[in-house]
Write a structure and sequence with these properties.
This protein is of the alpha+beta class. The protein contains 10 helices and 8 strands. The protein has a single domain, classed as Endonuclease I-creI. The protein is globular, with a radius of gyration of 19 Å.
Length: about 250
């Protein structure tokens, strides 16, 4: 298959937040594919719907369903496309990989857009402060130091696929393995990129289509810090000058 940038991004999104199942009713049986997102990510799911329209000439509706926003489709040609790309029907968290169509093409552009999709679906951006050590007042009180997290219980996704992509772009990162926290739990693999240089490089080379991530980055760019536990609406208000970020520190 031809791997366009839109398709590479959609593959990354599906690896992070997609599922496929078999649905049976009295009148119909077939595969059902879905991509879910949090309450604040409805706008991002509209972007995902744009990708579907661009690739498949079909635009799914974004619906509110059991405390999440969700895109769902049972169109057989679309479900079959994802199945033939290597995505299984049923549970995939332990075994999911970047599709061969991404890895075999060995294209930095494909890697970048895949990582953008995966980051937007299943990644995290936050900022920490330095509470200990010989740091100035600003660094001790403001959340200024950026960290990007990519987390999965799929060993091969992190240690093979994503590691290869990051190496090809020269990004600096660390990978941590966390033992299962309880019986029945899985080992967790976490990629961490730290510091202003890595964040700026990520946003320049890979970027984000998710307003949840973008607004955190934009607040940090403008003020040098981003308060934790703010909502998307609060960050938009900060960027519009309607809310002072210092109020989150009691100033």
């Amino acid at each position: 298959m031809e791997v366009t940038q839109g398709l590479a991004e959609l593959f990354g999104i599906y690896v992070g937040d997609g599922t496929m199942s078999v649905k049976r009713t009295k009148s119909w049986k077939g595969m059902l594919m879905s991509i879910a997102a949090s309450r604040e990510e409805k706008g991002w799911l509209e972007h995902v719907a744009d990708l579907f329209e661009q690739i498949f000439c079909y635009r799914p509706r974004v619906r509110w369903n059991f405390n999440v926003y969700k895109i769902q489709t049972g169109i057989s040609r679309i479900c079959k496309f994802f199945a033939e790309a290597g995505f299984p029907v049923g549970e995939k968290a332990l075994t999911v990989r970047a599709p061969n169509a991404i890895m075999d093409v060995n294209s930095e552009d494909a890697y970048k857009t895949f990582l953008r999709g995966y980051f937007d679906a299943d990644g995290c951006l936050n900022f920490e402060r330095r509470q200990y050590g010989k740091y100035g007042e600003f660094k001790k009180t403001r959340h200024y130091y950026p960290r990007i997290f990519l987390v999965s219980i799929s060993r091969d996704l992190i240690l093979t696929d994503i590691q290869q992509m990051l190496e090809s772009m020269g990004l600096r990162y660390r990978i941590y393995e966390k033992e299962p926290s309880a019986k029945g739990k899985c080992r967790v693999y976490t990629v961490v990129l730290k510091g202003p240089t890595q964040l700026d490089m990520w946003m320049k080379e890979i970027g984000s289509s998710n307003p949840v991530h973008l607004t955190k980055y934009q607040v940090w760019q403008r003020f040098g810090f981003c308060p934790p536990r703010t909502t998307l609406g609060q960050r938009l208000a900060i960027l519009l000058g309607k809310l002072d970020p210092k109020i989150f520190y009691g100033d």
